[in-house]
Amino acid sequence: MEKHYLNRKYMFIGLFLLTGLVFIIRLFYIQIVAEKYILSASNNVLRYITQYPARGLIYDRNGKLLVFNEAAYDMMVIPRQVQAMDTAEFCRLLGIELADFRNRLKRTSDYSTYKTSVFESQINRENFGALQEKMFMFPGFFVQPRTLRKYTYPTAAHMLGYVGEVSPSVIARNSYYKPGDYIGISGIEKSYEEVLRGRKGMKIRVVDVHNRDMGSFQDGRYDTLSSPGTNLWSSIDADLQLLGETLMQNKKGSIVAIEPSSGEILCLVSSPAYDPNLLVGRIRNRNFSLLNADTLNIPLFNRALMATYPPGSAFKPANALVGLQEGVLTPETRYSCPGGFALGNDQVVGCHDHGSPLNLVESIQYSCNTYFCKVFKLILDKDGFYNTEGAYNRWRNHILSFGMGKRTGLDLPSELSGNIPSTAYYDKYYGRNRWRSLTVISLAIGQGEILMTPLQLANMTALIANRGYYIIPHVITGVGEPNSVNRTFMQKHYCSVDPAHFDVVIDGMEKVVQAGTATNARLDSVAICAKTGTAQNPHGDNHSIFIVFAPKENPRIAVSVIVENAGWGATWAAPIASLMIEQYLRGEVKRQEIKERMTNGNLIRR
Question: Which are the contacts of 295, defined by CB distance < 8 A and separation ≥ 6?
Fold first, then answer.
């Protein structure tokens, strides 16, 4: 009897296990093997639609809207749901070729037959209107709304940046992004991506076998809302930016303007430039290829942050300040100029015609090369002829404290550091203790190995205007609300030169405009302080350089202008800078003759 019950026990256990095994096999078949069940249980019934948030808006310093959003749509596809349809009509509505249709469908099918993929991105509102009425004809396809960036003005492309599809490498690093998402690629769009992008949401829709939307799944219980991106307020003056780009058309170079008291960037011009609207929507890829292929003008290259130049004579005020700090120079120090500074072996650093002898103010006013070569030699020979290295390091540390030779730390990507050469560089090139002040005398006049970006030049000018300090340049002054700037961009960075030494140098810079090398930069009733520069260029004509700030007391704007291959600093850079100051301080340009001459000048060699 006991054996009989034991057998029945094993029979029930076996029956239970067999039933469980049947269920497991069936579930495995349904969930893993039979793709048609996957489709009917999920894709054929539920459609997951990403709710892309609107990116944050960007305003200029006066509240003018610079960047906004416009509705756009992505055509999505689930390859296994695609059925026989009017392919010719579909291609006509999208504006694509039949061969392109087949290639795209194959590519998405290779990725996944039952997962959603982007078939055509960024369809504008006009095209979507005609498409929407016929979507029922195209099973397996549906439209997903999103937004496109639009730009109020055809300017500031390098500063604002652009948005593009996220790359596989970014997706691998950041789980927030999925294929088909968009991300800031350059400029503000990149630097402030996490602020601007907002947060994605999700809608789950019920769809029948005829591709018709039957409504929300369980009344939207499982939907999640998207959150729009945060708005940004920039320091850019839209009118000043527009003027700068107008003046620099058909020229290579840049204009950078900074408000000295705050470090706010008022304009950031890189020329040649492009309309930022060219890199929006379905035309983006074609236009990007065209811009990238322009190897003569390189319009995608941000010269304001990434081009480096010898500053030429625009560097002389910095050397004057170091000479005063090191005690080898006083305001009354006078030197004669016989037409150049002799290096020996019949080599001379040439100089132009001007009165002689000159004191410090006059040497800046007339940009005397001889004067500054003598001052620089005294700085490097201060510790004796055989102790050049220690004196050079002191000079270099002074210059570095001006914000040169390193990135300023501004809130835009791709900034380069420039170059203030180290003793190690000269040791490697000439040998340890085998170089002296005359070996590197070209540094006295901003030539040789010195390289600076236009941004660094403008920042140095702001430091001089402030009598010894700068605030890190930045383009965003408010996140979420105006005037909520990061405290990092409020700190004063003092240089190693005593503030007492700045007034005499500034007096010399004022004389440059009053009766010196840049009288064509004068502006009635405004005290302008400036320095011309003509930077030698081994690849062609010299570069025209000008640094300026105004007014002399309580300065409101500091500007650097570089016009490549344009010759003397006073010829092109100085008038352009003067017009920029007039626009900013007075709200308009009245000197139309000068404006037209600068605007119409074509300096690009073709």
Answer: none
